[in-house]
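TOKENISE THE FOLD
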Amino acid sequence: AAVPGVESVALASPLPLLGRRSETVEPEPGSAPRQSRVDNVALASVSGSYLTTMQIPLIGGRAFNDAEIPQDTVSDLPIVMSQSLATMLWGREPALGKVVRMGSRRFVIIGIAADTRAVSLGTTTPFLYLPAIRDSRLRIVARVRGSMLELERMVPRWAQELDPSLVVDGQRFSERIALELTPARLSSVVAATMGGLTMLLALVGIYGVVSYAVSQRTRDIAIRLALGATQNGVVRLMVRQGSRAVLVGLLVGVAGAVGVAQIIRGFLLCVSPLDPVAYVGMAATLLIAALAAMYAPARRAARVNPALTLRED
């Protein structure tokens, strides 16, 4: 903590995205809970500075102070609870000051923290932050401003000075997050590639259908031109008629995308299944691409020679 550039240091076990511990949480009888117990609640043993170091905002109450942690096994321990867990247990009723049990130990809620993605980047998890007491699995986490190269060189040296048998295994959270995102990124590349090929095939199909429709209406177009229709009017006519089928396809496609997004919502990281930017952007891209595919055959249809076409018929 005394090294220049280190803003905050804390202890924790386990660190986010590096394992999971869980317990059954039971509200103290008489606290009017919505649920009598919540199973598989994720938790971590942390020091008092952990929330500050990890920049996890407190919605209510405060974090515990290391100096106020009782070292006996009888006294109640202060804990910080995530907002989602507090809502599951007490709804909108304030959770601060209430008591929960895990096993035979009692815990007093002194703080409510914002939900995080500590277990998986794909979803938030109900969470408890417990005081770190005699936990041999604790790891050091430090928030560093600027370059971390100096700290990464110094920490192994300090460990060797304390005990030559100590082995330091350090990792940046950015590296851990990148590793966690690797499967999602590979999946997104595959999905984008398949989507691009699908859109290319769709555009080729639209181009072919419009071209065929134009060839079947050559005489009709020639008559329109002979009667005074302009080339721009013919282009607008062909594009307008082709756009109707494209719009119907877009509506069906968007409805199907909404349904599929609900199925795969667990794989969507930091993106809502109903993200309006994604849907509007996708629909606009397909519409522009389809209009571009229709414009060429429509423009070619407008350039036919009415006299030559009608003479051939």
User: Anything to note?
Assistant: The longest strand covers residues 38-46.
